[in-house]
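ok so for the tutorial part 2 we go from a plain amino acid sequence to predicted structure tokens. step 1 is just haveing the sequence, like this:
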Amino acid sequence: MRNLKLIVLAASMFLFMGTNSACAQDQEPQTVIIKMHEVEAMFQSKMIVTKPNGETISTDLMNPNFKHIEEATGHNNVLLQTELNNWKSLGFKIDATYVTIIADMSITTLILSKD
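step 2 — the prediction. this is what the tokens look like for a chain of 115 residues:
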């Protein structure tokens, strides 16, 4: 009788261990996309963050120009750094970085993911 209890206990443990592993494998990777549109002139510079659930958040940035390029760049860098640190603290890692420059606009794209 005691051996039967041990066998049932061991079988139950294996069953639950197998269930937990299957649940962990069913989780899909999560992706975050951060885009910074920095424009010198007519339009407002923005940082747009797309969360893993598809929600998009837009933050105004300072428009860089020759009069205050250091101030604007520093301000925008701190906002980007804060956003990156928030996602990294949640376990996300940077997968890719792209920079595109078109006339007086710079577009920086960062792709982060978490398994």
